[in-house]
Task: structure prediction
Amino acid sequence: MALSRSARTGALATAAASFLLIAAAPAPTPGAPGIGDPYFPRLGNGGFDALHYDLDLAYAPDSGRLDGRTTLTARATQNLSSFDLDLQQLTITRVEVDGRRAAFTRDGDEVTVTPRRSLARGRDFTVSVTYGGIPQPLSGPIVFGSKYGWMKTPDGVFVACEPNAASTWFPSSDHPLDKATYDIRIKAPEGLTAVSNGRLVSAYDKGGQTYTHWRESRPMATYLATATIGRFDVRTGRTPGGIPVYVAIDPVLENRNSVDVYAVTAAATDYWSKIFGPYPFEETGAIVDDMPEAGFSLEVQSKPAYSTVRSETTIVHELAHQWFGDSVSVAQWKDVWLNEGFATYAQWLWVEHQGTRSAHDSFLAAYDSLPAGSPFWQTEVADPQRDTMFASAVYRRGAMTLQMLRERIGDRAFFRLLPAWTRLHRYGNADTADFIRLAERVSGRQLDDLFATWLFTTGKPVL
Result:
């Protein structure tokens, strides 16, 4: 069919406009190899926004071998010619972008993927990575000198990855600024239990193997993901407030457990829901594993992981992190006091709630126990540096800061501020400046001097 003159004119105009748009579009360029965190410059990746991870894992406890296929759904934030993923130690055998094989190269922990065709800004795409090997935990001064990450146990594995070890077991954009939702499927020998984030979708045995599928439908930072496997006694139910509970405890610890993990988890989840705002996830719980070599517990999203039997105050600390650290995550790792200072202060609030000691007295006990010459007072809480980011001062001086704030602005404003913070940044990221601004807005007071003294200055403040 022939076009009329007017139709031909319109078609030519449309083609010209399309050509101009194409000509004006920026040329595809590689995504940055890191988000730019000053403590971990190459963690996370630029050029895309992670939306969803689908992890398909098979673990053999006897050999320690992990075989996996991770499919990441992401959105390009620029015209991409290539992009990076973080993956430590493990061997990649295949990479696909949108179902088509893609080229890749490695430079240490950085994997650069080059799709067959560039990816336009705003476009959603998938990248699937098939990989395997024997994951090794990380170690060093950062996490109290302890090993962390993927840690083999006598009957499985204990997985706790803060701050930079998620990429020891799956390819990712391994920084809390790039959150995503998750489906985590785990195959392990029959008789073992695999515990992960969110809610249990399915679990069944077939051919001598156990297949477990967990789904975390709320945005999650990579370091909060887990795939802990072992022999566990599992108890499920609901808190008195109606929140689903899943608690898994290694039976080896049965006679060493001086605290009722299930009861404390249920009670603390409900109490923090009153103080900090609605519980942000679909399920609460705990993973208690016999792993004394890991000298820490971690606020794994929806199910804090304890490396052995811990105290009641440890449980309430890790559950407070579900709001402060998990739902509201740091924008950069230097802001980690927003996680640890708040969770430590929650311990003081819990003791106050129990009627044992006021938060003011907990503050004085901490303050008086540390002489002015102590190295404790030489940490700048707002920027503690990479190797000392989990220094005691980040926890305790961070908590002291909150008590000083409470006494400055009064209980009414302070207990409006906490749920306002978790509501404003729910499932997102924030930094210290954001908190100061909100504290000033809620209280109607200028607070620069208080935060300068307690967060940005070294030395023991004078009361």
